[in-house]
Amino acid sequence: MDFAGAFAWDNVVFILKGLLVTLEVALISIVLSFVIGCILAIVQYAKIPVLSHIVATWVEIIRNLPLLLLIMFTYIALPDIGIKLDPFVSTVVALTVFESAMLAEIVRGGLRSIEKGQIEAARSSGLTYVQTLWHIVLPQALRSMVPPTVSQFISLLKDTSLATAIALPELVHNMSIVKSQNVNYTLPAFLLATMLYLIVNFALSIVSRRLELRRA
């Protein structure tokens, strides 16, 4: 093992650049998948004729597909129909599609946890269905699903490592390049990547616990 060589300044900076790409992909995917997931969940919750069934089918299909398959599909298969995406965009698209389906189920569960009595009271007070959903149901549902949502975000962050299959220069990809320089760099490079994942995911866990305490 050669920690001094593996942790040379250039190697550390290169791995940190990979971490930055990982965080960028994760952040963009988190925001997009959360918004889309909420929309999908609301459509299912509202039981809109035909559309609700289409959305439910879509969510079920996506949830049962491997994420790696979606990543490779967006990067390798879509060019066959004229849609060519770079590794960064391909990863964001695949993660957003996959995670929005996962989050849709979490949000839908949160919406269904709200007592019908509150909805009926809001409607009887003159609020429209949309106003009731926006002002009464959704805020309470979002608070109740903080822990599972943050857990899903942590999973998303870790899942970015799958994009090494399409040569996205994220953390695992850059770590692999560093360790390939010298067989003695393997363990140090893995330890550094592991530590960086632990720091980021631990920080997200702390945020989740604080939000849960505030909710209580």
CATH level-two architecture: Orthogonal Bundle
Approximate helicity band: over 70%
* Head-to-tail CA distance between termini: 48 Å
Mean pLDDT: 88
User: Any low-confidence stretches, pLDDT <50, length ≥5?
Assistant: none
Structural class: mainly alpha
Task: Provide the CATH topology.
Answer: MetI-like fold
Radius of gyration: 21 Å
Domain ABC transmembrane type-1: 19-208
Keywords: Cell membrane, Membrane, Transmembrane, Transmembrane helix, Transport
InterPro entries: AA_ABC_transptr_permease_3TM, ArtM/GltK/GlnP/TcyL/YhdX-like, MetI-like, MetI-like_sf
Membrane topology: Multi-pass membrane protein
What do these coordinates show?
The model has no long low-confidence stretch (mean pLDDT 88). The chain contains 10 helices and no strands. By secondary structure, it is mainly alpha-helical. It has one domain: MetI-like fold (Orthogonal Bundle).
Quick structural summary:
The protein is mainly α and about 220 residues long.
SSE layout:
Elements: H1 3-6, H2 9-46, H3 51-63, H4 67-77, H5 87-112, H6 116-124, H7 129-144, H8 146-159, H9 171-181, H10 186-215
